[in-house]
Amino acid sequence: MLSDEEIIDAVQAALHQLYDTQALRGNLLVQVLGLSDAPRAVSELRQIITEAIQSLRPDETVPADAGAWRVYEILEYRFLQQVGQAEVAKQLGLSVRHLRREERRAAEMLAQALRPRLGNTAAEEGIAAVTTTAPPADAALGRRDLAWLDDQATRSEVNLADALVQVIKVTQPLAAARQIAVELDAPQTTRVAIQAVAVRQMVLELLTVAIRHAITSPVKIRLRRGDDVVGIEVEACCGELSADDRQDFEDTLQMTRQIASRCEGTVEATLDACSFRARILLTLPQDVPVLVIDDNEDTLRLLRRYTVGTSFRIMAASTLSQALDLAAETRPHIIVLDVLMPHVDGWELLAQLRQHPLTMDAPVLVCSILTQEDLALSLGASEYLRKPVTRQAFLQALERHRHRGAPVLPPAS
Q1: ∠ CA(296), CA(366), CA(55), 5° rounding?
Q2: More confident residue, 137 or 281
Q3: Is pLDDT of 342 > 80?
Q4: Among the listed residues 103, 108, 140, 147, the one whose alpha carbon sits nearest the alpha carbon of residue 28
Q5: Secondary structure element (H or E) that encloses residue 253, with its range
Q6: Which of 87, 80, 53, 82 lies closest to 68 in space, CA to CA?
Q7: Beta carbons within 10 angstroms of residue 338's beta carbon
């Protein structure tokens, strides 16, 4: 039989591995749950964990400040939605250190929810040698080596040219030792809202590969920007490669792609006996007009504060006529509606929004203290948010209804 601590450790590891298919396949829970021979073991385990988390969602009658909600929100936002530690800690009013302790407590509660299945299966299969199947400590650290990125989840506006200059400075000792110069071709006005730390780390990973294998100077970095995408290219002339060189390159490329996938980007790179070529392609957040129909000034200030530093732009109205005037000017991508207003019938307003040519194609998110989700959805709302709504829940809802075309980078001149 497995001890409680062993089960909790396995559950906590699975939470961190939830979207890392290779790592999750080696988690102890696969064996404990009898999924070892299942053709879709990882998908089944992920589904079991997701359902167990949803089973911990408290009833709506439970006070919002109850501990059960904190446990559920940590599991939902940190692990199912992959929200960064810093952001979740801020929303819950905790320090990051305190949140880490609460994550352990949440894993304990999830282990309890899974215990009937875990205990029975473990006993039937006679699992005893846990230490032989548990992932080693250094492997666990390897799976969490992107934890720093979770603390940088909020985008901020940066000058990419300045960011690339900083990366080049970091690699200067390595380049000098190999007598390799690094040339940068980047417009000085390239300011974008993006995850700056992630971008710097990706460029650093690829630039060090180029410097280590370059046989002629210089290594070149180019920055190009389109309307909704930015490309960062690294090139170098290289020589013969060993098997270890190729393996190191593959490891670096895998790491860089993992980082890119967390900030809506892709990475392409090749390394052979002649050259190194790499390109990071990052989708830029587009300005998304959001029409909020609510007569509560406190709510409007809160939602505006929630969207600071994001691509969402809040416009406010308290009547249908105001809403239609704004809709005619800006064509909002999303509408957020409070149906409980003293001078407006919110349900009637919802019906009119769904029928009016200016707003009928925009998703309407009803945000209210009422418990009328089914009614709202039946009347044409795309989603229902219960007040008080957290910043993360609000932004996640907006992201789900963002409409964006495929990015196109202009051809190189």
Answers
A1: 120
A2: 281
A3: no
A4: 140
A5: helix 243-261
A6: 53
A7: 23
Distance between CA 205 and CA 234 in Å, rounded?
11
- Say if CB 385 and CB 393 are below 8 A apart: yes
Nearest of 35, 46, 30, 26 to residue 135 by alpha carbon: 26
DSSP letter at 411 equals P
Q: Which residues contact 397 (CB under 8 A, 6 or more apart)?
A: 365, 383, 385
Task: Give the three-state DSSP class for 277.
Answer: strand
Which pTM was predicted?
0.46
**SS3 of residue 59 by DSSP:** coil
DSSP label at 334?
Answer: E
Q: What is the mean pLDDT of the chain?
A: 81
Give 392's strand partners.
none
DSSP bridge pairs for 384: 366
Alpha helices, DSSP H only, in 308-359? 320-330, 346-355
Instruction: Name the residue with tokens 């404990």.
Output: 32
User: What's the half-sphere exposure (Cβ side, CA atoms, 13 Å) at 355?
Assistant: 8
Confidence check: pLDDT of 149 > 60? no
For 67-195, where are the alpha helices, taking DSSP H only? 67-73, 85-92, 96-125, 130-133, 137-143, 147-150, 160-170, 172-177
What is the DSSP code string of 165-200? Answer: HHHHHHTHHHHHHTT--EEEE--TT-EEEE-HHHHH
Angle subtended at Cα 79 by Cα 200 and Cα 16, rounded to the nearest 5 degrees: 75
